[in-house]
Write a structure and sequence with these properties.
Layout: H1 2-7, H2 10-34, H3 36-44, E1 48-51, E2 54-57, H4 59-75, H5 84-106, E3 108-115, E4 119-135, E5 138-143, E6 152-153, E7 161-168, E8 171-175, E9 182-183, E10 190-194, E11 207-214, E12 217-224, E13 231-233, E14 236-260, E15 267-278, E16 281-288, E17 293-295, E18 298-306, E19 314-321, H6 327-350
Parallel strand pairs: 9-12
Antiparallel strand pairs: 1-2, 3-4, 3-19, 4-5, 4-14, 6-7, 7-11, 8-10, 11-12, 13-14, 14-15, 15-16, 17-18, 18-19
Helix pairs in contact: 2-3, 2-4, 4-5, 5-6
Length: 351
């Protein structure tokens, strides 16, 4: 009973609040050294935070505890008409905590690359890569980040086994010396080893070397995601590709415009004039550096451009899918309205 009393008490909130502030500071500082994506995953989207080998409750774990604390406190209070402003504030904070907890699992981000006059409905992940194995008319996909050096991949439908020899999220490429494995292709001269992650996750060079064991023979190969190479062996093929998925709409790039600073070739702004078509119809819109476009649960941003000075530049649009994107605004509105109502009630009480 004492534990339940403590869990729903304001004292627990006063303990958790400084913890959140510490995590926010650590996560913000870490972005300078390990990049936004990696820092967010470690400090804000994790259930456990490892500090020098010591497991600590992660940001999501603390969020769940705070959610339980606020919910139990709100349900056990004898709310009166004169305190409905405080009640709305608590409901708003609970809504914020729910969106904070579920957003990492329901949101995703990637990019759309497109040339003028072309159309596409493909979203490519910035960070997620897949090791693809194709045999006859079947395909197997393995998440690159779940693989590790020495792991063995098998399937009862395969006439072979795959052994992971080298694996890295961000690879350093060097000349390969003598090896006990029979490498073919670029793997004969290319060795992969892990190095520090780039600050921008999309700049990481993922790769792996693997051997295919079949009928007492073992041949080795190397793949890196920067080289769209498919390795073929008898009826099987192997690829390392960025994860792609179909969007519920099609984007057509009508025109791309680059604006430079006066008397320089330095870009001041980019603009993509696009047409978006889905099952409800089509609409034309312009996306600029600080002017994104919302399409249902998706938001498109002008991210960058490839070959801006060429005749056929490729516009790169960042795409974020978040079904809960409106929830923080609604919850913040409840908090603001509750705060205002509480202030007005206090003013009336003083009179």
């Amino acid at each position: 009973m004492k534990i339940l009393t403590f869990i729903k008490s304001p004292k627990l909130f006063t303990i958790l609040a400084p913890c959140f502030m510490v995590y926010l500071v650590l996560g913000t500082l870490a972005q300078k050294y390990i990049g936004l994506h990696e820092a967010t995953g470690i400090y804000f989207y994790g259930w456990v935070l490892w500090m020098h080998g010591i497991p600590l409750p992660g940001f999501l774990s603390l969020s769940v505890v705070l959610l339980i604390n606020l919910t139990l406190f709100s349900l056990t209070q004898n709310w009166k008409q004169k305190t409905y402003g405080l009640m709305l504030m608590h409901v708003g904070v609970i809504g914020l905590m729910l969106s904070m907890i579920f957003t990492p699992f329901w949101s995703k981000e990637g990019y759309i690359s497109i040339k003028t006059g072309e159309q596409t409905n493909t979203l490519t992940s910035y960070f997620e890569k897949n090791f693809i194995v194709k045999l006859a008319d079947q395909t197997w996909s393995f998440d690159h980040k779940t693989l590790s050096k020495g792991s063995l991949l098998t399937d009862k439908k395969w006439p072979f086994e795959i052994r992971i020899l080298e694996h890295c999220k961000n690879c350093k490429i060097s000349m390969r010396g003598e090896s006990k494995y029979n490498f073919e292709g670029m793997g004969q001269n290319m060795s992969l080893s892990p190095q520090a992650l780039e600050l921008k996750a999309e700049e990481n060079l993922s790769g792996l070397s693997f051997s295919v064991i079949q009928k007492n023979q073992e041949k080795a190969y190397t793949l890196i995601d920067a080289v769209p190479l498919s390795i073929h062996m008898d009826e099987a093929s192997f690829q390392l590709v960025k994860r792609m998925e179909a969007l519920p709409f099609t984007v057509t790039l009508n025109r791309f415009k680059k604006t430079n600073y006066s008397a320089t070739e330095m870009a001041k702004a980019y603009l993509s004039d696009i047409t978006v078509k889905d099952e409800t119809g089509s609409k034309r819109a312009a996306i600029e550096m600080n002017s994104p476009l919302s399409i249902g649960d998706y938001t498109l941003y002008q991210s960058s451009v490839i070959g801006s000075n060429s005749d056929t530049p490729v516009s790169v649009l960042a795409a974020v899918h978040n079904p809960l994107k409106e929830a923080p605004y609604f919850a913040t509105g409840l908090i603001a309205f509750g705060l205002l109502a509480h202030a007005l009630q206090k003013g009336r009480h003083k009179k």
